Amino acid sequence: MRKRLVVPAIAVVVLALVLAWAVFRTPARRQANQPPVATERPAVNVGVLQPLSGSLAAGGQRAVEAIRMAADEHNARGAEKIEVIVEDSQGDPAEGLKAFHRLTSGGRTRMVLGDLTSSVTLAIAPTAEKARVVVVAPGASAPAVRNAGEYIFRNWVADDFDATAAALFARNAKQWKRAAVLFIRNDYGAGAEAAFVRAFTSAGGSVALRDSFAPNETQFRSLITKVSRPDLDVIYIAAQPRELAQLLRQLRARGVRTTVLTNASAEERDFQTIAASAADGIYYTAPVGAPAPAEPAFKQFTENYRRRYNLDPDIVSMHAYDAAQMLFRCTSQRAPDEVRKCLNGLSEFKGVLGPARFDDHGDVLRPVAIKERRAGQALTIATFEPMSRSWI
């Protein structure tokens, strides 16, 4: 009797095993016959290092806004996705280096957009070179950045070219003979002062006074006393927006009417708000094409920026946006050496500020305009094309 029961039991077990094998085998066979599922490549992390606190916080915030907008537009085109990671440099070299380490530690990112300031950019450059991190600075105009390394690029015209253009305009176009030079005590100010003095004196002018002031200075009584003299034709000031605006207001309040020649800080919103009517009559250098309302790229950028942030973009926004667009053209390369080569090879880039390319030193090549402020409006009165390096 037991033998009769054992046989059916064995048959049931065997049948169950066969069915189980069939059930589990079928999906595997189907999966093997299906085409492989496409896997999305991970996003490209791009670090953003900008001064988001301190006296340059307003400019840093506008740079971040423009970069975020550029990244969103890039992603919306279906291109390789960009993830923006932001750190605050505080506009300070030591703090900026710490923030740079936070961005790049553990291979978090190998590409960084920053910094606006020359001091921070020069502070991070040796580490960036050693780690092969590509840095594209929207600002950082000090001449020394030119030799900071092969992975360092900047989208702001170098101070020595900018200041030389100002000096040649002063001496050759205006025939001014005697100048005073006031400059901020940082890498930017020192580079601009040296270049202006060299070019102005080489063209036959004389510099009657050279003096400096500290970053974040708000009281300029002693400097104003020194430049309150009738033999000066022009006062050249190399400064950042807030210091420039305060100095100019105090000059005019003390009755000093000598013509002031300065830099693109006069294009920034902070300067215009603080200086107000004291800015009328000044001359300054600025990139050609900033702003250029007739250019389609500028018009589209301005409309998008206004729609997104409910305010007009300024000179910093434009530089940061173009710097981001230039880098994003090369992010698909991923490997730092390939990104660097891609940036060096950009030859047909036309951004918000017009056509631009990088030279062998990572300097952007872009013409410089001389502008005059009249009744709150900026008028372009002269243009200087990029020069050869023979004058440096």
Biggest sheet, spatial arrangement of strands: 7-6-8-9-10-14-15
The percentage of residues in β strands lies in 15-25%
Number of β-strand runs:
15
Termini gap: 110 Å
Helix-strand string: HEHEHEHEEHEHEHEHEHEHHHEEEEE
Mean residue pLDDT: 87
> How many alpha or pi helices?
12
Walk me through the structure:
The protein has 392 residues and is of the alpha/beta class. 44% of the residues lie in helices and 20% in strands. The chain has helices spanning 2-33, 57-76, 93-104, 118-131, 159-173, 187-202, 221-227, 241-253, 269-275, 296-309, 315-328, 336-344, and strands at residues 44-50, 82-88, 111-114, 134-137, 152-154, 178-184, 206-213, 234-238, 259-262, 283-287, 349-351, 354-358, 364-365, 368-374, 377-384. Helix 2 (57-76) runs parallel beside helix 11 and helix 5 (159-173) packs parallel to helix 6 (187-202). The protein is globular. The N and C termini lie far apart (110 Å).
How would you describe this structure in keywords?
12 helices, five-stranded parallel β-sheet, 392 residues, seven-stranded mixed β-sheet, globular
Fold topology:
Elements: H1 2-33, E1 44-50, H2 57-76, E2 82-88, H3 93-104, E3 111-114, H4 118-131, E4 134-137, E5 152-154, H5 159-173, E6 178-184, H6 187-202, E7 206-213, H7 221-227, E8 234-238, H8 241-253, E9 259-262, H9 269-275, E10 283-287, H10 296-309, H11 315-328, H12 336-344, E11 349-351, E12 354-358, E13 364-365, E14 368-374, E15 377-384
Parallel strand pairs: 1-2, 1-3, 3-4, 4-5, 6-7, 6-8, 8-9, 9-10
Antiparallel strand pairs: 10-14, 11-12, 12-13, 14-15
Helix pairs in contact: 2-11, 3-4, 5-6, 8-9
